[in-house]
Amino acid sequence: MAVTPTSAELDRLRIEVPSWAYGNSGTRFRVFGTPGTPRDPFEKVADAAQVHAHTGLAPTVALHIPWDLVDDWGALRRHAEDLGVALGTINSNTFQDDDYKLGSLTHVEPRIRRKAIDHHLQCIDVMRQTGSRDLKVWLADGTNYPGQDSIRERQDRLAESLAEIYAALDDDHRMVLEYKFFEPAFYHTDIPDWGTSYVHCAALGEQAKVVLDTGHHAPGTNIEFIVAQLLRLGKLGAFDFNSRFYADDDLMVGAADPFQLFRIVVELIAGGGYGDPDVQLVLDQCHNIEAKVPGQIRSVLNVQEAVAKALSLDTAALDAARRAGDVLLANEVLMDAYATDVRPLLAEHRASKGLPEDPMRAFLASGYLERIAEERQGGVQAGWGA
Amino acid sequence: MAVTPTSAELDRLRIEVPSWAYGNSGTRFRVFGTPGTPRDPFEKVADAAQVHAHTGLAPTVALHIPWDLVDDWGALRRHAEDLGVALGTINSNTFQDDDYKLGSLTHVEPRIRRKAIDHHLQCIDVMRQTGSRDLKVWLADGTNYPGQDSIRERQDRLAESLAEIYAALDDDHRMVLEYKFFEPAFYHTDIPDWGTSYVHCAALGEQAKVVLDTGHHAPGTNIEFIVAQLLRLGKLGAFDFNSRFYADDDLMVGAADPFQLFRIVVELIAGGGYGDPDVQLVLDQCHNIEAKVPGQIRSVLNVQEAVAKALSLDTAALDAARRAGDVLLANEVLMDAYATDVRPLLAEHRASKGLPEDPMRAFLASGYLERIAEERQGGVQAGWGA
Amino acid sequence: MAVTPTSAELDRLRIEVPSWAYGNSGTRFRVFGTPGTPRDPFEKVADAAQVHAHTGLAPTVALHIPWDLVDDWGALRRHAEDLGVALGTINSNTFQDDDYKLGSLTHVEPRIRRKAIDHHLQCIDVMRQTGSRDLKVWLADGTNYPGQDSIRERQDRLAESLAEIYAALDDDHRMVLEYKFFEPAFYHTDIPDWGTSYVHCAALGEQAKVVLDTGHHAPGTNIEFIVAQLLRLGKLGAFDFNSRFYADDDLMVGAADPFQLFRIVVELIAGGGYGDPDVQLVLDQCHNIEAKVPGQIRSVLNVQEAVAKALSLDTAALDAARRAGDVLLANEVLMDAYATDVRPLLAEHRASKGLPEDPMRAFLASGYLERIAEERQGGVQAGWGA
Amino acid sequence: MAVTPTSAELDRLRIEVPSWAYGNSGTRFRVFGTPGTPRDPFEKVADAAQVHAHTGLAPTVALHIPWDLVDDWGALRRHAEDLGVALGTINSNTFQDDDYKLGSLTHVEPRIRRKAIDHHLQCIDVMRQTGSRDLKVWLADGTNYPGQDSIRERQDRLAESLAEIYAALDDDHRMVLEYKFFEPAFYHTDIPDWGTSYVHCAALGEQAKVVLDTGHHAPGTNIEFIVAQLLRLGKLGAFDFNSRFYADDDLMVGAADPFQLFRIVVELIAGGGYGDPDVQLVLDQCHNIEAKVPGQIRSVLNVQEAVAKALSLDTAALDAARRAGDVLLANEVLMDAYATDVRPLLAEHRASKGLPEDPMRAFLASGYLERIAEERQGGVQAGWGA
After folding, report:
1. Mapping DSSP to helix (H, G, I), strand (E, B) and coil, where does residue D34 land?
2. Which of A4, A267, B146, D260 has its CA 20 to 30 A from that of B289?
3. DSSP summary character for residue D243
4. pLDDT of residue D386
5. pTM of the model
6. Which member of C156, C193, C322 has the closest CB to residue D149?
7. Parallel/antiparallel/unpaired status of strands C16-18 and B280-283
8. Backbone phi, then psi, for B283, in 5-degree steps?
9. DSSP 3-state assignment of B316?
10. Pick from C140, C207, C146, C145: which is nearest to C178 by CA?
11. Rounded Cα gap, residues C41 and C21, in angstroms
12. Looking at the keywords, is Manganese present (chains A, B, C, D) (predicted)?
């Protein structure tokens, strides 16, 4: 029953890739290094550009401040443009300074809240230089022990801090506010769920939107429901894509539960969010043990396959089955789209755009990995600096 | 460091008990009957009155429509008053009619939504007769299979249905809207989390509030955070108390994780919700294998102990430790209140009110259970009618 | 890279269907009835035979005692054979008698353990009449409240009870022992995990094997690991197939996470369990809202598709990638098999066996559902009798 | 109904503390340092000795190889003895070398398995020098992606590797084998549950026992059941104590769910494991944000309080209630022990042994923290070296 997506529909897919995915990441037990790992933002952007060059899907690169601070933003911007990509979302970081041990925007001490707010004002300044639209705020804030701090007062301080940052945005800026179930805080997290992010965004105004990271939910959470709800409320600003079996595992998107990714994309399309620049699709993953650039290529391809399957859905048949209350048929119509092997269609689509039919094989054959392993000797490999 | 709660503080505790806890309940595998189980609402109210008579904590009884429909509401009301209690919240039920197999207020068919709305209008009518303030809406609505129905359209239909019911409320009525993670729907639930209940209540207006059932969350959810957040937003209308190890186990409140119950009450007090009639405390449990009236007595006593411990908290010391950033001390101050054995204080408090020091022993010695087992022969024992 | 399964490989698939799936089932909130629901074991077997007639995959029917007790076992056996199927596993039931409220084989009272053991001896007697090989033991035993009973003593009583039942088995009989994380017990379950089932089976002897029900695990459990481990230990006796998003939802197998089902089958094949009559594949599901016979057809087809995908795996390429430590390539080889659309192959395979290419459409067009809805008037529809 | 534990019963408590708890630890996001953090094993042992000096509960210190490698084991041993403690369990480490990126004892390459086995043989050598009895094996081994490696073959390689290590043990040595649900592996872990650890230990022999880390289970797992089962099987070798709300949070034991800790100790006592030197109690925690030595003191006190409560249990009353099938009474007897405030009793007990009544206040008043902050300038603070 599946229908065939048009080329125009497939063309609307845009995925932002994160600069930090090309640096080293790991667990608290170990961060493994790899030959060729970038040592600065310029090399990260170069790696990111490879993903776009081979897939045509990843035209922008998200930056993380201070990890990606450079002296000359114009140079980084031109570097990106020369490589065929653009700079994207600016991510703030208030979890790697000793001052933030017990919180940042929610901290009980005004001095530390001030510092954290100022960091965000600095990020907004960077946005003006990079031409970025979105300031992404993910907070590690929370507590580890019952009683440690006042849950309620931290909410009030959070609201106050966010309001000051929001007021500093330009008119064409957005603040996108991420929630996370737990980690690195292990008792309570100050923005633990979509509801909390939503009520803060609603209080801030139109330029504030919720970020849904697919790895940031309690076990069993129906993520596509949240997608549908936030689209309905006009408050879904961005996705952070990755996948998980347990906690915030940060595996490649689609690796753990490809059917879930498909269902998420189905709701994204149904709610009008697909292809809407106001609903940004971003990767946020950790390639702890797998090769990084190939890991990113696999990830954008996984999203593309999910999109192609979701676009194959026979929505008229689905609607009819739903109206008839035919549970099995409605499920079958959905599964029919999911069961469709869209890879031949996508290979053809790529060829029609002058892209390699098999981006992974093409990239591996390009010699890029060998080249960077040889060229990037010395220096300090980029990482989270934990 | 713990402080001693005053009698006046302890006196502010009021817990509503549910009529259906005195009838039979069970699992999908088996509902076990017990001698003496009530056969009608009058007998349920009589059992409920025993809880209040022995504890002084449970002055009102929640009713469930249609389970508790009677011909003469005045008679039921007077019956309750004669026994020292009053009728409380009216609970609607749209999960036990064949028409509701695929939904009620969210159903794709207008006819069935109409029927479900009308049922709620009938409940509002009952409220006028019972003198109840609150209409509690818990929906079993959801789907079992991906694709079965449109998540998004069901939200829109839900909003529309709720709006019609809300419009029918009297000025002194409230609609309290419950959320639940899953069950009986196993793929998606139409009101699965506090965020969804909140956005509907916010859209409806001041008379709509969220109900937090302590058993209705994903594993690991920090429930006291939600308490703090909803109190901050002015939208916490009521609790449904029970406890759980796994899913919605509906065990006696405080049985599975007494420390969690304590933390919940701490946030309730901190946020100004304790003793506030606008934040109703209600039991909602299933005494599948334990004796029912004693199970209810144990439950209200568990809440009372948690309240007494929470009132023992040295909030000045806690605040000082928090301001100093002393994680261990702040935690210790909280644990100190929790570790306090409040049972002697509560026994004394009860004695001062003319109540039995040990309500459980007093009730068991009263012969009530033996009397109802003998008197309530014949007829059909009340239950969920699943 | 995927390879094409041979017809002979596909032919090794056999799935046992459960008699109780054709009767009514539901949740504690409601059991919805359907026109045409069987009223006795003969009608259940007739429905089950439809599944086999249209798919060629379900040659045996599991029975549940006492639900399926009949006076004349020879008649039921011949009835089944006339319809092209055979009677299969005998399931005991010690959860629906008032005596079992606090346990059965683990009960503190010898009288009740005796009764539960005797029930199993009766089941073994039935096996002799039905020609069944397997006695399946799933226990609802457990406790709801900490302290309620001794976890340790219940283990010892369980071991003793099982030993007596095991001793009564004929040489060609097996006892297959199921574990379950929780429900209907909500604090502790006496056989909660594979480890517990395994240690009892190991103590009993060669004729005792573990049953893995795919819905009976904690959130996040890697089920294919357990499959691999039990096959390695020679102790995997049977599967109970179904699927879940939350708890023991008992949805159609493959509905919630088709990729997980695929991974399970991959391990089944890798460990030599596929096609081995000693590793029985059985459905155990509840069609609460969907049509029952079609629900069973969909389920066996879901398993067949997972098997065909798993048989498509290029194991040589996989092995090479693993030996090279190429994480992404090994994953890609696996995903390649999963992404393959095996439906055309299976349609062809069916046609070659004289089966309908699309079993679901063929069944729906057969008029069977309409016929039973008309014929099966009056009487009491079969169900769990909760 | 609670009874009063005797001094002799309380005296049987011994808790081993881990050297690495005094060094820095954190999350993948950040490791926060603290003034005074030890820079070598001698300073770690000195800190550990403070815990014992103030509580009398922690007479031994576990070491981690290679973190705690020293040139002169005799010197470290004497250093410990001078401070009133002894060296305890030796922990191996096969997760911080680049070679172990894809596994250690389970690795597909024989060379890396050899290296990992040799590391354990080195650890056994250390045991001979430190006089340790236990070799604790926790493996980070597992995979992140489906297909990455063969689950089954890794089990076989694991069994082979463990057998070689086991064969090298002296007669008075033990191998204690830990399991963990997930992390740092995010798809499958090679020893994910007690069942897997048990089957390997059973195959190895009498000197192999299971380690139960209280933070290493799936959500909702009934840990006290596993305690009871392993004691029954004679295979519980040691505990790693900590607590958690979400994943392996490694919070202070008793901090997240003190009632669970109590239930665990109740089963430990009931099964004869309390005070048995063959069931070792060890802390394994991360003091990410709280002070480390005080965090350890709080932890051993939390265990002591749980033990005192569990020893307060009126087992005769409990047994009678269980035999009578009185669910509520049995639960009440247990809760009565839990509700008892044992702190006065423990203060008295400490005083009778010449220990400070309030170990935490005594330690904080001792000036030790100020002294080490001043003395331990320069050098590299100990940590996990991730």
Report:
1. coil
2. D260
3. B
4. 60
5. 0.98
6. C322
7. unpaired
8. -85, 145
9. helix
10. C140
11. 12
12. yes
Best probe of the A interface among C224, C341, C343, C360, by most A CBs < 10 A, is C341
Indicate the residue of A218, A259, A270 with minimum beta-carbon distance to B221: A218
Domain boundaries, chain C: 8-311+342-375
DSSP string, B320-368: HHHHTT-HHHHHHHHHHHHHS--HHHHHHHHHHTT--SSHHHHHHHTTH
Contacts of B among chains (3+ CB pairs under 8 A): A, C, D
Q: Could you tell me which of C36, C84, C81 has the C-alpha nearest to residue C58? A: C84
- B88 and B134 in contact (C-beta within 8 Å)? yes
Q: Which tens digit of pLDDT belongs to each residue from B203-246? A: 999 999 999 999 999 999 999 999 999 999 999 999 999 999 99
- Residue D237, φ and ψ in degrees, nearest 5: -95, -35
CA dihedral in degrees (C123, C127, C128, C133; nearest 10)?
-140
Phi, psi of B174 (to 5 degrees): -130, 150
Which pLDDT value is given to residue A1? 75
Please name the member of D228, D232, D322 whose beta carbon is closest to the beta carbon of C108.
D322
Of the candidates D270, D266, D253, the one whose C-alpha atom is nearest the C-alpha of residue D213 is D253
Question: Radius of gyration (Cα) for chain D, nearest Å?
Answer: 21
* Contacting partners of chain A (3+ CB pairs under 8 A): B, C, D
A29 contacts D144? CB cut-off 8 A:
no
Question: Sign (positive/negative) of CA torsion B345, B347, B351, B353?
Answer: positive
Q: Distance from D336 to chain B by nearest Cα, in Å?
A: 10
Is D318 within 8 Å of D24 (Cβ atoms)? no
Residues of C within 8 A of A341 (CB-CB) are 339-341
Residue B119 contacts by C-beta under 8 Å, 6 or more apart in sequence?
Answer: B65, B92, B93, B94
Q: Please state, in angstroms and rounded to a whole number, the distance separating the CA atoms of residues C338 and C308.
A: 9
Rg (CA), chain C: 21
Q: Identity (one letter) of the amino acid at D114?
A: R
Instruction: Give the best residue of B112, B194, B198, B199 to mutate against chain A (max A CB count within 10 A).
Output: B199
| Strand-pair category, A174-178 with A208-213 | parallel
Residue that has been written with the tokens 């809440």 in this structure: B303
Give tens-digit pLDDT for A142-190. Answer: 999 999 999 999 999 999 999 999 999 999 999 999 999 999 999 999 9
Residue D63, pLDDT above cutoff 90: yes
Q: Provide the 8-state DSSP code for D383.
A: -
Binary contact (A360, C332; C-beta < 8 A) = yes
Spans of chain C below 70 pLDDT? 386
Residue in the structure block whose two tokens are 């334990």: B290
CA–CA separation, B70 and B48 (whole Å): 17
Which residues on A lie below 8 Å from B192 (Cβ)? 222, 225
Domain D8-311+342-375's class? alpha beta
Backbone angles phi, psi at B90, to 5 degrees: -100, 125
Cα(D18)–Cα(D13) distance, integer angstroms = 17
* Cβ–Cβ under 8 Å, residues C386 and B26: yes
Mean pLDDT of the residues in chain A: 97
pLDDT for A386 beyond 70: no
- Transcribe D82-149 into DSSP letters: HTT-EEEEEEP--SSSGGGTT-STT-SSHHHHHHHHHHHHHHHHHHHHHT--EEEE----EESSTTSS
Q: Report the distance separating Cα C146 and Cα C150, nearest Å.
A: 9
Nearest by CB to residue A246, choosing from C220, C332, C341, is: C220
